[in-house]
Amino acid sequence: MEDYLRQSTRIIAGVGSLRLKTLKDCDKLFREKDFPFEMDQVQILIVLYNSKGLSQQEIGSRLQRDKASVNRTVSLFGKKGLVKIVQDKDDGRKTRVELTTVGKEWAKQTVSILVKYEQHLATALSKDEYRQFCFLLDKLIAGKV
Predict the structure, then answer these.
(1) CA-to-CA distance for 127 and 39, rounded, in angstroms?
(2) Which residues face 84 on adjacent strands?
(3) Which of 16, 111, 125, 142 has the fewest Cβ atoms nearer than 10 Å?
(4) pLDDT tens, 118-134?
(5) ∠ at Cα 142 (136, 119), nearest 5°?
(6) Do 119 and 111 form a contact (C-beta atoms < 8 A)?
(7) What is the pLDDT of residues 43-66, one digit of tens each?
(8) What local confidence, expressed as pLDDT, does residue 6 receive?
(9) How far is Cα 117 from Cα 81, in angstroms, rounded to an integer?
(10) 3-state helix, strand, coil in the chain (%, to 5)
């Protein structure tokens, strides 16, 4: 019975384990580089880096994070001078979160570390396995199964 359960939840358990390993490894890398944040905060930094500014609701939607979590991280980033809150040009009732020059620099360094870490992970796979793994991840995430 235990083998059946293990096999029937292999994808869920495997993806969950890989996620935890990745978060722990990246947090360790960030600590070694004296970065002032953790992986869950980095996700917001990266989303902002890849946009021209987003509302906190848009950040939460893209990352599937709750409003309070996004608000805490944005507030922390604001105190550290990484982000600024600006009025939306099209809708004065809305505000947008944008990276400052300092925030953009931190984001660039963060991306560099993440790229190196992913390259390290990829060494466990051949080029074809890596392409197949990325294809399968995208397929599962998109729900095309």
Answers:
(1) 27
(2) 98
(3) 142
(4) 999 999 999 999 999 99
(5) 45
(6) no
(7) 999 999 999 889 999 999 999 999
(8) 61
(9) 26
(10) 70, 10, 25
Instruction: Output the pLDDT for position 144.
Output: 55
Q: Are 98 and 84 in contact (CB under 8 A)?
A: yes
The pair of structure tokens assigned to 13 is: 């358990």
Length of the chain, please?
A: 145
Encoded amino acid at 4, one letter: Y
Report helix, strand or coil for 96.
strand
Residues of the chain with pLDDT under 50: none
Residue 80: per-residue pLDDT: 93
State the sign of the Cα–Cα–Cα–Cα dihedral 140, 46, 76, 84. Answer: negative
| C-alpha to C-alpha distance for 24 and 105, rounded to whole angstroms | 23
Identity (one letter) of the amino acid at 115?
V
Task: Return the pLDDT at 140.
Answer: 87
Token pair in block for residue 92: 């004065």
* pTM, 2 dp: 0.79
Please choose, from the candidates 140, 142, 117, the residue with its C-alpha nearest in 3D space to the C-alpha of residue 29: 117
